[in-house]
Amino acid sequence: MMTILTSSSIFLLKEIIFEMLSYLPVKSLLRFKCVCKHWNATTQDFQFICLHFKRCPVLINKKPLEIESYATGFIILSTIGLILEYLICWVASSPNFIYRIRNPEMHQILEIPDSQNPILNMHMVVDTDNQLLKLLSVIHVIGDPGLPLGYEVLDLRNEEGTYSWQTLDLPKESRGETTILQNRICRHSTLFKIVDAIGTAYSMWDTTNSHIGIDIVDMVNDSYIGHTTFPNGFYSKDDCILWKRKLSFAKVVKDEVHVMVLEDYNKQQIKWAEAKLIIKLPFLKEVVQEQIKVLVGRRSKLCFSRWNWDKKSICTYDFKTGKVTTIVSSCNNSDLFEFITPCLFACKGMHADRLVSN
Known about the structure:
By secondary structure, the chain is mainly β. The chain has two domains: 12-56, no CATH class; 57-357, Neuraminidase (6 Propeller), CATH 2.120.10. 10% of the residues lie in helices and 44% in strands.
């Protein structure tokens, strides 16, 4: 007896559908939204969006020299698929900062409110394990000489679409060195650097006592974890990387890479590794008059940039096979790059980018 399957008799588990669709490119998923209501709902499910983001390959794009968004005047702060950017408008000789988030794949934008305090830097935090999508801003606390630096968090998963900055509670005592090296604090300058991993953000700046000040923020619970410092000598804050998803400082010395890792942290103790991790890079023995900078370290691979005179490349090194693979080659030394993961992230209140739609 033959059994005829109709469309109504075929049922796939949610997990199976997620598994199949999560490997497709964003543009394909956006086209498939019209297949049925269920598929359309899948592309808007945050659990699926996070799974797709984890599996989507990272693209390395070359930025224009002025590092501004094309034809908009907006200056890019960070890119993770979603692009965080700002524009300065002058009103009565005073700067007015306009912030927004843009999804270039979906041609959607969302305006972000400014803080009541001057924002010194802003960073977008994505944690797919905790299904987290938030903004962290470093602020200059006006009128409080004992606490010059503060932090505010904005949750981009607000279902009501009413976005506001929430100030984090910081200890005024035993916080550590918070005095910034430069006397004049500028908004969105290179004074501050923020990186994040596994739901934790690290805010760094050069202090007045030849150290790098580091504040650690729990982005899952919107709380301040603690403060630590790192000697600003052999390493600088520009040598900061994520090594196996941990905050680290890495520098190439001859044919070796020297890595210092932040091993553990909590409100009671912040612990750096007792000794540097030194890894041999045999291919560097053949390198002549090249500069090497480590970008990120994973369990099996090392991503780095290398430049010689006026040419620059981005490469990976496989620890197991010893193979060096060039990802981007023969670029001008002045070229800047951005690492982008195309994504389906969308926020309540996003609307069409008129510049693109027109």
